[in-house]
Protein backbone atom coordinates (compact mmCIF):
# COMPACT_ATOMS: atom_id res chain seq x y z
CA UNK A 1 0.00 0.00 0.00
CA UNK A 2 2.83 2.39 0.87
CA UNK A 3 4.61 1.56 -2.37
CA UNK A 4 1.40 2.13 -4.32
CA UNK A 5 0.92 5.51 -2.67
CA UNK A 6 4.47 6.53 -3.54
CA UNK A 7 4.02 5.54 -7.18
CA UNK A 8 0.73 7.43 -7.34
CA UNK A 9 2.30 10.48 -5.73
CA UNK A 10 5.25 10.36 -8.14
CA UNK A 11 2.93 10.13 -11.14
CA UNK A 12 0.93 13.12 -9.88
CA UNK A 13 4.09 15.14 -9.31
CA UNK A 14 5.34 14.37 -12.82
CA UNK A 15 1.95 15.31 -14.25
CA UNK A 16 1.88 18.60 -12.35
CA UNK A 17 5.46 19.40 -13.44
CA UNK A 18 4.50 18.83 -17.09
CA UNK A 19 1.36 20.94 -16.64
CA UNK A 20 3.41 23.73 -15.02
CA UNK A 21 5.92 23.66 -17.87
CA UNK A 22 3.07 23.91 -20.38
CA UNK A 23 2.04 27.15 -18.64
CA UNK A 24 5.48 28.63 -17.95
CA UNK A 25 7.42 27.81 -21.12
CA UNK A 26 5.11 29.72 -23.50
CA UNK A 27 5.46 32.80 -21.31
CA UNK A 28 9.27 32.49 -21.30
CA UNK A 29 9.16 32.10 -25.07
CA UNK A 30 6.98 35.19 -25.34
CA UNK A 31 9.36 37.30 -23.24
CA UNK A 32 12.36 36.02 -25.20
CA UNK A 33 10.70 36.86 -28.51
CA UNK A 34 10.00 40.41 -27.35
CA UNK A 35 13.77 40.90 -26.89
CA UNK A 36 14.74 39.38 -30.25
CA UNK A 37 15.46 41.20 -33.50
CA UNK A 38 12.56 41.20 -35.93
CA UNK A 39 14.67 39.76 -38.73
CA UNK A 40 15.86 36.91 -36.51
CA UNK A 41 12.28 36.10 -35.50
CA UNK A 42 11.19 35.98 -39.12
CA UNK A 43 14.20 33.91 -40.16
CA UNK A 44 14.77 31.54 -37.22
CA UNK A 45 11.47 31.57 -35.36
CA UNK A 46 11.05 31.67 -31.59
CA UNK A 47 13.82 30.64 -29.19
CA UNK A 48 14.03 30.54 -25.41
CA UNK A 49 17.32 32.45 -25.45
CA UNK A 50 17.48 35.39 -27.89
CA UNK A 51 20.23 34.81 -30.43
CA UNK A 52 20.10 38.43 -31.60
CA UNK A 53 19.15 40.60 -28.63
CA UNK A 54 17.19 43.75 -29.43
CA UNK A 55 15.15 46.42 -27.65
CA UNK A 56 13.42 47.71 -30.77
CA UNK A 57 10.06 46.38 -29.58
CA UNK A 58 10.16 48.19 -26.26
CA UNK A 59 11.68 51.27 -27.91
CA UNK A 60 8.60 51.41 -30.12
CA UNK A 61 6.33 50.97 -27.09
CA UNK A 62 8.15 53.66 -25.09
CA UNK A 63 7.35 56.16 -27.83
CA UNK A 64 3.68 55.51 -27.06
CA UNK A 65 4.21 55.49 -23.28
CA UNK A 66 1.85 58.41 -22.62
CA UNK A 67 -1.01 56.76 -24.47
CA UNK A 68 -0.34 53.38 -22.87
CA UNK A 69 -0.22 54.84 -19.35
CA UNK A 70 -3.51 56.63 -19.98
CA UNK A 71 -4.96 53.34 -21.11
CA UNK A 72 -3.66 51.67 -17.95
CA UNK A 73 -5.44 54.28 -15.87
CA UNK A 74 -8.74 53.66 -17.67
CA UNK A 75 -8.26 49.90 -17.39
CA UNK A 76 -7.62 50.11 -13.65
CA UNK A 77 -10.71 52.29 -13.18
CA UNK A 78 -12.94 49.97 -15.24
CA UNK A 79 -11.55 46.88 -13.51
CA UNK A 80 -12.05 48.32 -10.02
CA UNK A 81 -15.59 49.63 -10.60
CA UNK A 82 -16.64 46.58 -12.60
CA UNK A 83 -15.25 44.07 -10.13
CA UNK A 84 -16.89 45.81 -7.17
CA UNK A 85 -20.23 46.01 -9.01
CA UNK A 86 -20.06 42.39 -10.11
CA UNK A 87 -19.14 41.20 -6.63
CA UNK A 88 -21.96 43.19 -5.02
CA UNK A 89 -24.61 41.87 -7.40
CA UNK A 90 -23.26 38.33 -7.17
CA UNK A 91 -23.40 38.28 -3.36
CA UNK A 92 -26.83 39.91 -3.21
CA UNK A 93 -28.16 37.29 -5.63
CA UNK A 94 -26.30 34.26 -4.28
CA UNK A 95 -27.05 34.74 -0.59
CA UNK A 96 -30.88 34.60 -0.93
CA UNK A 97 -30.57 31.58 -3.23
CA UNK A 98 -28.51 29.80 -0.58
CA UNK A 99 -31.41 30.09 1.90
CA UNK A 100 -33.72 27.11 1.69
CA UNK A 101 -36.66 29.10 3.06
CA UNK A 102 -36.58 31.65 0.20
CA UNK A 103 -39.97 31.81 -1.58
CA UNK A 104 -39.81 30.80 -5.25
CA UNK A 105 -36.20 29.72 -4.81
CA UNK A 106 -36.56 27.08 -7.53
CA UNK A 107 -37.97 29.54 -10.04
CA UNK A 108 -35.20 32.06 -9.44
CA UNK A 109 -32.56 29.32 -9.71
CA UNK A 110 -34.05 28.19 -13.02
CA UNK A 111 -34.04 31.73 -14.41
CA UNK A 112 -30.41 32.10 -13.35
CA UNK A 113 -29.39 28.81 -14.93
CA UNK A 114 -31.36 29.60 -18.10
CA UNK A 115 -29.15 32.62 -18.77
CA UNK A 116 -26.10 30.34 -18.84
CA UNK A 117 -27.55 28.39 -21.77
CA UNK A 118 -29.36 31.00 -23.86
CA UNK A 119 -28.90 34.66 -24.76
CA UNK A 120 -30.38 37.12 -27.19
CA UNK A 121 -27.39 37.18 -29.52
CA UNK A 122 -24.96 39.93 -30.47
CA UNK A 123 -27.23 42.14 -32.61
CA UNK A 124 -30.18 42.37 -30.15
CA UNK A 125 -27.72 42.90 -27.31
CA UNK A 126 -25.99 45.72 -29.18
CA UNK A 127 -29.31 47.37 -30.03
CA UNK A 128 -30.52 47.12 -26.44
CA UNK A 129 -27.41 48.67 -24.90
CA UNK A 130 -27.09 51.33 -27.61
CA UNK A 131 -30.72 52.37 -28.22
CA UNK A 132 -32.40 51.64 -24.89
CA UNK A 133 -29.73 52.03 -22.21
CA UNK A 134 -27.66 54.55 -24.24
CA UNK A 135 -24.31 53.44 -22.81
CA UNK A 136 -22.44 53.72 -26.10
CA UNK A 137 -19.30 55.87 -25.81
CA UNK A 138 -19.55 55.96 -22.02
CA UNK A 139 -17.50 54.21 -19.38
CA UNK A 140 -20.51 51.99 -18.63
CA UNK A 141 -20.08 50.39 -22.03
CA UNK A 142 -16.87 48.86 -20.66
CA UNK A 143 -18.49 47.72 -17.41
CA UNK A 144 -22.09 46.61 -17.93
CA UNK A 145 -22.31 44.36 -21.05
CA UNK A 146 -21.62 40.66 -20.41
CA UNK A 147 -19.34 41.24 -17.43
CA UNK A 148 -21.31 42.96 -14.68
CA UNK A 149 -23.40 39.87 -13.93
CA UNK A 150 -22.43 36.24 -14.49
CA UNK A 151 -24.62 33.26 -13.57
CA UNK A 152 -21.61 30.99 -13.12
CA UNK A 153 -20.17 33.22 -10.40
CA UNK A 154 -23.55 33.37 -8.64
CA UNK A 155 -23.74 29.57 -8.59
CA UNK A 156 -20.19 29.33 -7.23
CA UNK A 157 -20.95 31.82 -4.47
CA UNK A 158 -24.26 30.14 -3.65
CA UNK A 159 -22.52 26.75 -3.40
CA UNK A 160 -19.95 28.27 -1.06
CA UNK A 161 -22.62 29.76 1.20
CA UNK A 162 -24.56 26.49 1.25
CA UNK A 163 -21.64 24.18 1.95
CA UNK A 164 -19.47 26.36 4.20
CA UNK A 165 -21.85 28.48 6.31
CA UNK A 166 -23.80 26.39 8.85
CA UNK A 167 -27.52 27.15 9.09
CA UNK A 168 -27.22 26.99 12.86
CA UNK A 169 -24.86 29.96 12.80
CA UNK A 170 -27.38 32.05 10.88
CA UNK A 171 -30.22 30.99 13.17
CA UNK A 172 -28.17 31.87 16.24
CA UNK A 173 -27.46 35.33 14.84
CA UNK A 174 -31.16 35.90 14.18
CA UNK A 175 -32.04 34.80 17.72
CA UNK A 176 -29.65 37.51 18.91
CA UNK A 177 -31.64 40.06 16.93
CA UNK A 178 -29.51 40.34 13.78
CA UNK A 179 -31.28 41.38 10.60
CA UNK A 180 -30.69 39.69 7.22
CA UNK A 181 -28.33 42.50 6.24
CA UNK A 182 -26.53 42.18 9.58
CA UNK A 183 -26.14 38.43 9.11
CA UNK A 184 -24.74 38.97 5.62
CA UNK A 185 -22.28 41.73 6.50
CA UNK A 186 -21.14 40.61 9.96
CA UNK A 187 -21.16 36.82 9.64
CA UNK A 188 -21.42 35.58 6.05
CA UNK A 189 -18.94 37.91 4.35
CA UNK A 190 -16.13 37.60 6.96
CA UNK A 191 -16.36 33.80 6.63
CA UNK A 192 -16.37 33.98 2.82
CA UNK A 193 -12.99 35.62 2.33
CA UNK A 194 -11.50 32.80 0.16
CA UNK A 195 -14.48 32.80 -2.19
CA UNK A 196 -14.61 36.59 -2.38
CA UNK A 197 -10.91 36.81 -3.26
CA UNK A 198 -11.41 34.10 -5.87
CA UNK A 199 -14.22 36.04 -7.52
CA UNK A 200 -12.26 39.29 -7.33
CA UNK A 201 -9.41 37.63 -9.22
CA UNK A 202 -11.60 35.92 -11.81
CA UNK A 203 -13.85 38.93 -12.46
CA UNK A 204 -10.90 41.31 -12.37
CA UNK A 205 -9.07 39.24 -15.00
CA UNK A 206 -12.13 39.32 -17.24
CA UNK A 207 -12.33 43.10 -17.03
CA UNK A 208 -8.59 43.52 -17.42
CA UNK A 209 -8.42 41.39 -20.57
CA UNK A 210 -11.67 42.55 -22.15
CA UNK A 211 -11.48 44.51 -25.37
CA UNK A 212 -14.59 43.28 -27.18
CA UNK A 213 -16.96 45.65 -25.39
CA UNK A 214 -14.74 48.56 -26.33
CA UNK A 215 -14.66 47.38 -29.93
CA UNK A 216 -18.46 47.28 -30.08
CA UNK A 217 -19.49 50.29 -28.03
CA UNK A 218 -16.60 52.76 -27.71
CA UNK A 219 -15.25 55.15 -30.36
CA UNK A 220 -14.02 57.88 -28.00
CA UNK A 221 -10.24 57.43 -27.65
CA UNK A 222 -10.33 58.99 -24.18
CA UNK A 223 -12.17 55.84 -23.02
CA UNK A 224 -9.72 53.38 -24.58
CA UNK A 225 -8.37 50.76 -22.18
CA UNK A 226 -4.85 49.40 -22.48
CA UNK A 227 -6.13 46.29 -24.26
CA UNK A 228 -7.87 48.41 -26.89
CA UNK A 229 -4.82 50.63 -27.34
CA UNK A 230 -2.47 47.70 -27.74
CA UNK A 231 -4.86 45.98 -30.14
CA UNK A 232 -5.00 49.14 -32.26
CA UNK A 233 -1.21 49.31 -32.25
CA UNK A 234 -1.01 45.78 -33.61
CA UNK A 235 -3.56 46.56 -36.32
CA UNK A 236 -1.75 49.77 -37.30
CA UNK A 237 1.64 48.05 -37.52
CA UNK A 238 0.21 45.23 -39.62
CA UNK A 239 -1.43 47.77 -41.92
CA UNK A 240 1.80 49.71 -42.37
CA UNK A 241 3.78 46.53 -42.96
CA UNK A 242 1.36 45.26 -45.62
CA UNK A 243 1.06 48.62 -47.37
CA UNK A 244 4.59 50.00 -46.94
CA UNK A 245 4.99 50.46 -50.71
CA UNK A 246 2.05 52.85 -50.78
CA UNK A 247 3.96 55.30 -48.57
CA UNK A 248 7.09 55.54 -50.71
CA UNK A 249 10.56 54.04 -50.61
CA UNK A 250 11.48 55.55 -47.23
CA UNK A 251 8.50 53.97 -45.53
CA UNK A 252 9.31 50.66 -47.14
CA UNK A 253 12.69 50.69 -45.48
CA UNK A 254 11.20 51.09 -42.00
CA UNK A 255 11.61 47.85 -40.10
CA UNK A 256 8.59 47.72 -37.81
CA UNK A 257 8.75 44.99 -35.13
CA UNK A 258 5.58 43.29 -36.37
CA UNK A 259 6.15 39.94 -34.66
CA UNK A 260 8.07 41.22 -31.66
CA UNK A 261 5.52 43.94 -30.93
CA UNK A 262 2.85 41.30 -30.36
CA UNK A 263 5.04 39.62 -27.81
CA UNK A 264 5.97 42.91 -26.12
CA UNK A 265 2.33 43.96 -25.95
CA UNK A 266 1.39 40.62 -24.39
CA UNK A 267 4.13 41.05 -21.78
CA UNK A 268 2.93 44.55 -20.90
CA UNK A 269 -0.67 43.39 -20.62
CA UNK A 270 0.02 40.37 -18.41
CA UNK A 271 2.68 41.91 -16.15
CA UNK A 272 0.31 43.53 -13.59
CA UNK A 273 -1.63 40.28 -13.27
CA UNK A 274 1.56 38.33 -12.59
CA UNK A 275 2.51 40.80 -9.85
CA UNK A 276 -0.86 40.55 -8.08
CA UNK A 277 -1.60 36.84 -8.49
CA UNK A 278 1.01 35.42 -6.04
CA UNK A 279 -0.56 37.40 -3.19
CA UNK A 280 -4.03 35.97 -3.94
CA UNK A 281 -3.05 32.44 -4.93
CA UNK A 282 -3.79 30.69 -1.62
CA UNK A 283 -7.27 32.21 -1.41
CA UNK A 284 -7.91 31.49 -5.07
CA UNK A 285 -7.17 27.76 -4.75
CA UNK A 286 -9.21 27.40 -1.57
CA UNK A 287 -12.15 29.31 -3.01
CA UNK A 288 -12.19 27.27 -6.22
CA UNK A 289 -12.18 23.99 -4.30
CA UNK A 290 -14.92 24.98 -1.84
CA UNK A 291 -17.00 26.92 -4.37
CA UNK A 292 -17.03 23.93 -6.70
CA UNK A 293 -18.81 21.76 -4.14
CA UNK A 294 -22.47 21.43 -5.00
CA UNK A 295 -24.72 22.92 -2.35
How would you sum up this structure in a few lines?
With about 300 residues, this protein is mainly alpha-helical. The protein is about 75% helix and about 0% strand.
Lay out the secondary structure.
Elements: H1 2-34, H2 38-44, H3 56-63, H4 65-98, H5 105-117, H6 122-132, H7 151-164, H8 167-175, H9 180-191, H10 193-209, H11 212-217, H12 226-242, H13 249-253, H14 258-291
Helix pairs in contact: 1-14, 3-14, 4-7, 4-10, 4-12, 7-14, 8-9, 10-14, 12-14
Shape: globular
Helix content: over 70%
* Rounded mean pLDDT score: 80
Give me the secondary-structure category: mainly alpha
Distance between the termini: 34 Å
Rg calculated over all Cα atoms: 24 Å
The total beta strand count reads 0
**SS strand fraction:** under 5%
**Order of H and E elements:** HHHHHHHHHHHHHH
Number of helices: 14
Give the biggest sheet: none
Give start-end ranges of low-pLDDT stretches.
Answer: 249-254, 291-295
Key terms:
14 helices, single chain, disordered C terminus, mainly alpha, 295 residues
Can you walk me through this structure?
With 295 residues, the chain is mainly α. Helices cover 75% and strands 0% of the residues. It is built from 14 helices and no strands. It has helices at residues 2-34, 38-44, 56-63, 65-98, 105-117, 122-132, 151-164, 167-175, 180-191, 193-209, 212-217, 226-242, 249-253, 258-291. Helix 3 (56-63) packs across helix 14, helix 4 crosses helix 10 (193-209) and helix 10 (193-209) packs antiparallel against helix 14.
